[in-house]
Design brief:
Low-confidence stretches: 208-225
Number of domains: 3
CATH topology of the largest domain: TIM Barrel
Distance between the termini: 32 Å
Shape: globular
CATH superfamily of the largest domain: Phosphoenolpyruvate-binding domains
Structural class: alpha/beta
Mean pLDDT: 82
Number of strands: 16
Length: 511
């Protein structure tokens, strides 16, 4: 009989089963130069089996790059450990390559960083997961989960989690259950797990526990709901097609980079799969940084979005070349969204860079930094506007969403957030610009209504939330939403709206 462990908290609901994959940072022995030499040919073979430019570049470095190998050996003599030597050699090589202006060399920089991460994982004993698993760890970040083929991940079980983190956002979009137990060590050494977040239990030893997912929306969207969808991967593309979505409100292009897909060809393949199937696609420029960290990256959490994109050619060049090739092939149904903007000149500079690459499309601004709510001069350079409520809330309330302690202060339904959205909406509409919301707020039934009463033109939701948001919005009286949207919003009015929404949710039993 299966042993039962209580689930304390649910971040992403669902049920499923799989082999227990218990992860903890290994206490590893140092890797000697002799051991590295013995495993060199095996490593090269493993890289070539993986395929892709990053792995091929790694193989070429290990096999025949004398300068890199000399540097690696020098660092080994200093540290006595190949893994530490690899980290240092990579850092020094990246620093040296950064001095070059050749775009091809710039792109090789991240190939080196990505390849080194793979090499360290391989030397440390990390094994590729080829079966369905439930990932278990005290705490999980994007850097860990990105190592998995997410189609194989049936659930994520942790001791500490923040429902507003980027990881939670990604797991929601994939429909991967994410939940908290009091002590994950009780699951160490177990072979199979089943879980059901509705019953709030984990069953140790349960081999089969099928997920119970409903069809998303069967293509029928609510009359009250102007809806787009957020996309992270090819898996999302396939699901969104089945649901019947025609417009994409946010493509998180940085996840291509986090998976090591830097080449123009790899990016083109993904972008083209979107543009063939959807009428209107908003591609966010690669927003790397914060908790979406590239291998070997130790930069400031605020050096991200447009700030990094403008300075880092390895992020920028191939993305622009891919955009240019899309237009050469006749695709005119995509727009570019600029993330983490804080000043008007950043948008103007992006437009200038895009023009230099002969890319001609609409350029929008993602409002995440509170400065844009106060100073609206950036609207002059924006063709459309999208509000990212996750970072906007984080920065408004100084609440680090990666920190479980910060959850007390993270409240994206706070009237201050709603009034900030309303101010942006009013300014955008005065300028004749389309405006929407693509943050987590829009993927919650109550939050979706709050977005609509601000007068936005669209909300863009996570796939896993589409059905319940649509279902709820179809029951909310349209005339009431339109009435609220036509009036100024105040703290008192927003709280009254929230009370009314709560009553509707209880009446329609929307979780």
């Amino acid at each position: 009989m299966a042993t039962i462990l209580k689930i304390e908290r649910v971040i992403v609901p669902g049920r499923g089963s799989g082999r227990a994959f218990f992860f903890k940072e290994p206490v590893r022995k140092k890797i000697s130069w002799e051991e590295f030499q013995r495993r060199r040919s095996q490593l090269i073979s493993e890289c070539l089996k993986q395929g892709g430019e990053a792995y091929e570049y790694l193989a070429s470095l290990i096999e025949g790059d004398e300068e890199f190998n000399e540097l690696l050996y020098k660092e080994y003599l200093s540290t006595g450990d190949v893994i530490e030597a690899l980290k240092r050699a990579t850092y020094n090589t990246v620093k040296k390559l950064s001095e070059f202006t050749d775009p091809f060399i710039k792109v090789r920089i991240n190939d080196l960083a990505f390849a080194t991460k793979f090499l360290i994982d391989w030397l440390s004993g990390w094994q590729k997961v080829d079966e369905e698993v439930v990932v278990i760890a005290p705490e999980v970040g994007i850097d860990l989960i990105a190592r998995f083929d997410l189609s194989k991940v049936k659930g994520v079980c942790v001791e500490r989690a923040n429902e507003h983190s980027h990881l939670a956002l990604i797991l929601r979009s994939y429909g991967i259950p994410y939940f908290v137990v009091s002590d994950v060590s009780e699951l160490e050494g177990k072979e199979y797990l089943g879980f059901d977040t509705e019953k709030m239990v984990v069953e140790i030893g349960k081999r089969r526990y099928t997920r119970d997912f409903k069809e998303m929306c069967s293509g029928r969207l609510s009359e009250n709901c102007i809806m787009r969808v957020n996309i992270n991967s090819q898996v999302d593309v396939d699901k969104a097609q089945k649901v019947g979505f025609k417009k994409i409100g946010l493509v998180r292009t940085e996840f291509l980079y986090l998976k090591g897909k830097w080449s123009v060809e790899e990016q083109l393949e993904f972008y083209e799969s979107l543009l063939v199937e959807f009428d209107d696609v908003i591609l966010r420029l690669a927003d790397v940084g914060g908790d979406k960290v590239l291998a070997g990256d130790g930069s400031s959490p605020y050096f991200r979005g447009v700030r990094r994109w403008l300075k880092d050619e390895r992020l920028r060049v191939n993305q622009l070349l891919a955009f240019r090739e899309l237009q050469r092939r006749g695709y005119d149904n995509f727009k570019i969204l600029v993330p983490f903007v804080s000043e008007a000149w950043e948008v103007a500079e992006v437009r200038s860079v895009i023009r230099r690459y002969n890319v001609s499309c609409e350029v929008g601004v993602l409002v995440e930094v509170p400065a844009l709510v106060v100073d609206l001069s950036w609207l002059e350079f924006a063709d459309f506007v999208s509000v990212g409520t996750n970072d906007l809330t984080t920065l408004l309330f100084a609440a680090d969403r990666r920190d479980p302690e910060g959850e007390l202060y993270f409240n994206d339904k706070n009237p201050a957030v709603v009034m900030a959205i309303k101010r942006i909406v009013n300014a955008a509409k005065r300028s004749g610009k389309e405006v929407g919301v693509c943050g987590q707020l829009a993927s919650d039934p109550e939050g979706a209504v709050l977005c609509l009463v601000t007068g936005v033109d669209y909300i863009s939701v996570e796939l896993s939330a589409a059905e319940r948001v649509c279902s709820f919005l179809s029951k909310v009286p349209k005339r009431i939403i339109e009435g609220w949207a036509s009036k100024p919003l105040s703290y008192r009015i927003i709280e009254r709206i929230k009370s009314e929404i709560k009553r509707w949710r209880e009446e329609y039993e929307v979780s």
